[in-house]
Germination protease
Amino acid sequence: MNERDELDLQQFSAGIDLALEAKELAESGGNGPIPGVLSEVSDEEGIKITRLQVQNEEGARALGKMPGHYVTFEVPDLRKLDTGLQDRVATKLAQEFESFLDRIGVGKKANVLIVGLGNWNVTPDALGPLVVENVMVTRHFFELMPDQVSPGYRSVSAVAPGVLGITGIESSEIVQGIVDRAKPEVIIAIDALASKALERVNTTIQIADTGIHPGSGIGNKRRGLTKEIMGIPVIAIGVPTVVYASTIVNNTIELMRSHVQAQNGNTDQIFGLINKMEDKDRLQLVREALGPLGYDLLVTPKEIDQFIEDIANIIASGLNAGLHDAVDTSNVSAYTH
């Protein structure tokens, strides 16, 4: 058994919702490519797309992620509020999402239920409800006046079920009831995520066909929205909107090390044993220091109001174009719904 097989990722994976970050963590020991995990990366004018496929249980154990497809968009300049860039991201998202549906076998006419997970009263957690507000819902037209629906549209319904603390009902139970009555053929669940990297907060979008467990990124164990539970495919779309204080501390230590090394190269004298620790070990040390004190807070940027609205518009526009052939996927506007 090699070092990677012996590594218990569970102690490090709390708060890691992005498969890309799980892959980076698994590779941090310098063991090279991960068996059972395929990766493809493309970069088009500031939009980096990473396509991961976890092929088997070996790859799943290495990453701590379920077997399936994961597509991650990284766009650092989204924080600059460039509307032209937002339109390009919405366009690429629509095109990639359309290909994603084809790859996992979701047909052009499959009925879709969009579920916006999260708490609309808490801005960093309001992504799902905001997307639901802006997606194009059409199921009622197919039900009430099917002969008047133009070609190129499919039946889409949407719901924001709220959170357990507001409704007293698990989101998955609410969605299961809707699935039993409305009979959709696929669920698209949108939720806010947590990240282990500051630069990915509000700049990254992940698509996965493995479903979702609401609240998992912040340590809440909730009944999931998965194919096994719902009986139909579940596609998850997530954006990291928060980061743990321990991550910020760990990243700050690394930035300080880099700064000192650039100045005089003598980092051992200042940082001692911390200088020799691997990133995951140092992060675990910081968590052990902050956790018992209750200081490992969830943190979000002060501009979150604008960020969350912009990213919700991008996702809603991309979904509208990706789900409906009548909407042009070659030039999507992030502010046209």
Observations:
- The chain has 13 helices and nine strands.
- The beta strands are 37-44, 47-54, 68-74, 112-116, 156-159, 186-195, 204-208, 234-244, 298-299.
